[in-house]
Here is the input.
Amino acid sequence: MSDKREKKRLAVIGHPVAHSRSPAVHNAALAELGLAGEWSYEAIDLAPVEFAPRVRAMEREGFVGANVTIPHKEAALRLADTASPVAQAIGAANTLSFEAGGIQADNTDAGGLIDALPGAVRGRRALVLGAGGAARAVVWALLREGVEVYVWNRTPLRARHLCDELGGKPVKAGVLDLRIYELIVNSTSVGLRGEDPFAELPFVASDLDEKHTVVDLVYGAPPSQLLSVAAFAGARTVDGIDILVRQGALSFEIWTGRKPSLGVMDHAARAQGLSR
Ligand code: NAP
Here is the structure.
């Protein structure tokens, strides 16, 4: 039986996970709401083979919820007893809640992206770069907001499969004209290891201008090269931390029922980047 005096535990589960800013972000939000004595948030590194058995035991260990990141998002959806319509539609879960009755899966990546976008996007045209797990949430979220979505991926077949499943239109590099898009979302991992975005992505720096809003999901030491160039060209920019913080805030609210401070979470995420 769990000790009522024990803290309610939260975690981010990934492999690797040591780089994650989620513990700093969530513990800052808990402290700001006066909940740090009652709740705690930690990072747990689980290899794929360890994931399901450990997650099934978490409720007994006092965990109320967990964020799930690479490479476990699909496995998280599969092992949950119930899943929100959003998680089911995207085919991946980044948020688990542990209840006596079972494990509930949610996906806040989609909501986090939409909350981070400046202004209304309905009727706009978007170019989504990538066809992995993050791109699935981005494409689903934008389509649901009434955006006309085009998808480019380094491996074109994956873009076609994604569009067949979720909607949107695949585009190839040779026919891509950046002038027709208002929104450009980098949901590839280009930039994560210092790659030159203009060598790996299907456009050059001079294609970007003030009519674009450029979103880069990758976060490392912001601003990324893609966002620096976009900002210099006069584009509006949204970085990976803007999205991380908003998806984290949505997960936090599911577990605690409280709205955290986005400013406190953002500050904690960026401060951790500076200390590395
Ligand atoms: P993933 O499933 O492994 O997909 C990786 C994607 O990047 C694929 O489309 C892949 O193309 C493409 N890619 C990799 N290297 C490339 C290169 N050199 N040139 C062109 N394309 C390349 O990963 P994911 O889960 O979608 O995550 C993607 C990124 O989003 C990661 O950096 C992750 O950290 C970030 N992310 C951020 C947040 C946030 O809150 N800010 C949330 C989720 C994810 P191929 O299909 O051709 O391999």
Observations:
- The chain has a mean pLDDT of 94.
- The first strand starts at residue 8 and ends at 14.
- The chain has two domains: 8-107+242-275, 111-238.
- The pocket of NAP is lined by residues 70, 109, 130-135, 153-155, 158, 187-190, 192, 195, 200, 217-219, 240, 243-244, 247 (CB under 6 Å).
